[in-house]
Specification:
- The structure holds two protein chains of two kinds.
- Helix content of chain A is about 75%, strand content about 0%.
- Chain A is mostly helical.
- Chain A folds into two domains: about 130 residues, no CATH class; about 230 residues, no CATH class.
- A two-stranded antiparallel ribbon of chain A has the order 1-2.
- Chain B is α/β, with parallel strands linked by helices.
- Chain B has a domain of about 160 residues: P-loop containing nucleotide triphosphate hydrolases (Rossmann fold), CATH 3.40.50.
- In chain B, the strands form two sheets. Chain B has a six-stranded mixed beta sheet with strand order 6-7-8-3-9-10, sandwiched between helices. A four-stranded antiparallel beta sheet of chain B has the order 2-1-4-5, with helices on one face.
- In chain B, β4 and β5 form a beta hairpin.
- In chain B, α3 packs across α5 and α3 runs parallel beside α6.
- The two termini of chain B are about 35 Å apart.
- Classes of the chains: A mainly alpha, B alpha/beta.
- At the A-B interface, α10, α11, α12 and α17 of A face α2, α3 and α4 of B.
Chain lengths: ~375, ~270
């Protein structure tokens, strides 16, 4: 049995854990019992994996999540739209954060997932977007949110080019370190450019926008707005992935030398994916600024960069569904685990480790795996 | 015949190791030229220099009378020099057809906006080029495998895929690095037939190969490299009789009765 076939089972257990958690109601005594139950289940489930129907079913689930399975996507979207009607304000707020992170993770996935470039200071672009909106709307009162949103993206994109042009010729770890430095430099600038950024005190009073006369200040309204932004982003990014641009990115990721020998300008492909990432990262930052109404350098730490990277990696490198799933998992899971107080981070850590062992390709896995499983069914 | 590619006094060194030492040769338009020589003779280094992967220390490369020395690999590819690799380098996580579409990338003209809007131009180009990719795969005998992941192909099929991908560039010069290494005689025969067909389309082919049956059977001319130096050039018969070649392959002191003996350094 290989790690991959173990993978989806982990996914099921995780789902089970999420379902059972509310019933445990913080009574940590039940926790060992729960894991015992998991262990038993795991054994029976693995026995089932030899079964052809099971393999078929699993392949179908994988394909539905990765491929363009319209009914499933519609169902998920309907669920996401309906969420504010059935949950508390607190949960709506948590899910709004998750949506913002999903936008961010989808953006980062363009570089990390598609071109295979490790970027460690991605939160820098998020910060640039947030501060652009903050400064333009609340500090200088130059324009409203609707102008500030695309401008935030564009300014982040410019910074992306500025950083990318001299550094994208670097490879692997070296590039990762440069981008890490970039994230830190941005933070230092924000802390010290007092007259524009308010220094460590940040910027206060960033107002939520109105859309066709509708105020977006209520929690559900802003949630829906973020959902809309995520859907628009996903459509754009999915279409780019499925075009000659996406193909060239994967080719560059797989083998730069071979791609160049086929006439692909590797550097320009890297630059395009990097600046697109920066653009969407900047837009996400703009949303973050109006969501919070207040921004300070403390929101843009290195830990945040790592968090977004984890979302991409855990969710499934190079797939859009993966980035979104990763964001939901990493934001919602710790909130659900809050009842366990002390054990919270312990469980969180254990889940992360389990992922790396049993699902190295991430929650959703890669497109290639789904294609392959389909092959094995026909062959 | 006109010279398609002229190599003048090409030298490549890595630290103290002289991979190529003042190699001069020219590739004629429309020919099949083989490059042979023992391992470490500098054959692949020669390909890497031609395609811009290595920067030569000395010498010039002229392709269709234009200097290409020091140009970037993708620029040289766009000028019409395509190659396959000795160690397979297919894009493993992409389908077979997508691999070929990378070679066709230069023929696409739609932009980002057309991509996002899914314009008719986007659809038309994707459809057309997918069709040409299918035809190329048919040409190399991989027509039925087009939707498979490249990593699921057999070794021989992956080599064919590399050739299809290179042909997608519509090159004037095709460089093949050991195209039949590790293949059985049937597959080798198929590749030989394919190379002849490719030449029939007006593409000049340069092949690095150890398989002497293939080299002797297919080449118009053969160049022999030994320790970074070009030691002989000629048609297959001349090469078979050349004492320096025999020495390089069989070691000094071997009697030059090479009428029947085909030099074969590797099983």
């Amino acid at each position: 049995m290989n790690a991959r076939s173990l993978g989806l089972s982990t996914f099921y257990y995780l789902g089970l854990l999420l379902i059972v958690l509310p019933f445990l109601k913080g009574n940590t005594l039940y926790l060992p019992l729960f894991f015992l139950a998991l262990w038993t289940l795991r054994r029976t489930a693995f026995a089932g994996e030899q079964n052809r129907t099971f393999v078929r079913l699993r392949a179908r689930v994988d394909r539905a999540v990765i491929g363009n399975h319209k009914p499933l996507l519609a169902l998920l979207l309907a669920g996401a739209v309906a969420l504010p009607f059935v949950s508390s304000n607190y949960l709506i707020d948590v899910f709004t954060s998750a949506l913002l992170y999903a936008i961010l993770a989808t953006a980062l996935n363009i570089t990390v997932g598609m071109t295979g470039t490790l970027v460690l200071g991605f939160i820098g672009f998020y910060a640039i977007g947030a501060y652009t909106t903050g400064i333009l709307t609340a500090k200088l009162h130059l324009c409203g949110f609707w102008t500030a949103l695309p401008l935030s993206g564009l300014i982040a994109l410019c910074f992306g080019l500025l950083l990318g042009i001299p550094t994208l010729r670097l490879k692997g770890d070296y590039l990762a370190i440069v981008t890490l430095g970039f994230g830190e430099i941005i933070k230092i600038f924000l802390n010290n450019l007092d007259s524009y950024t308010g220094g460590p005190n940040g910027i206060l009073g960033i107002k939520k926008p109105t859309l066709f006369g509708w105020g977006l200040d209520s929690l559900p309204a802003f949630y829906w707005f973020c959902l809309l932004c995520l859907v628009v982003e996903i459509i754009i990014v999915a279409r780019i992935f499925a075009s000659r641009y996406g193909r060239a990115w994967v080719a560059v990721r797989e083998n730069e030398m071979a791609a160049a020998a086929l006439g692909i300008d590797v550097f320009r492909r890297h630059l395009l994916s990097f600046s697109l990432s920066a653009f969407f990262g900047g837009c996400a930052g703009s949303l973050f600024a109006v969501k919070q109404g207040f921004i300070s350098p403390d929101s843009f730490t290195f830990l945040e960069s790592v968090m977004v990277l984890c979302m991409v990696v855990l969710g499934g490198i190079g797939t859009i569904a993966g980035a979104v799933a990763g964001a939901l998992l990493l934001i919602v899971l710790p909130e659900l685990l809050r009842e366990f107080a002390l054990y919270r981070m312990l469980i969180f850590g254990a889940v992360m480790i389990a992922f790396m062992i049993y699902r190295p390709h991430g929650l959703v896995g890669s497109r290639a795996i789904a294609l392959e499983q389909e092959d094995s069914l026909h062959g | 015949m006109a010279d398609l590619l002229v190599i003048e006094g090409l030298s490549v060194a890595f630290g103290g190791v002289q991979a190529l030492n003042r190699v001069s040769l020219s590739v004629h338009e429309g020919e099949i030229l083989s490059i042979i020589g023992p391992n470490g003779a500098g054959k692949t280094s020669l390909f890497n220099s031609i395609t811009g992967a290595y920067l030569p220390n000395q010498g010039r490369l002229l392709f269709r009378d234009k200097e290409i020395t020091g140009r970037k690999p993708h620029e040289i590819a766009r000028l019409g020099i395509a190659r396959s690799f000795q160690n397979l380098k297919p894009f493993a996580e992409m389908t077979v057809r997508e691999n070929v579409l990378i070679g066709l990338e230069r023929r696409f003209s739609y932009g980002l906006l057309a991509t996002i809007l899914r314009s008719t131009r986007f659809r038309d180009e994707e459809l057309n080029h997918r069709k040409s990719a299918g035809e190329l795969l048919e040409f190399v005998g991989l027509g039925r495998r087009s939707r498979q992941l490249a990593r699921n192909l057999t070794y021989g099929e992956q080599k064919m895929l590399e050739i299809a991908r290179a042909l997608a560039l519509k090159p004037t010069l095709l460089l093949l690095d050991e195209p039949v290494a590790g293949m059985n005689p049937t597959e080798t025969g198929f590749v030989m037939e394919l190379v002849r067909k490719v030449r029939g389309e007006g593409i000049t082919v340069v092949i690095i190969e150890h398989d002497m049956k293939m080299v002797m059977g297919i080449s118009d001319r053969i160049c022999v490299l030994d320790r970074g130096e070009l030691i002989a050039t000629g048609d297959p018969d001349e090469i078979r009789r050349n004492p320096r070649v025999i020495e390089a392959y069989l070691g000094g002191g071997a009697t030059p009765n090479a009428e029947k003996q085909t030099p074969n350094p590797e099983p």
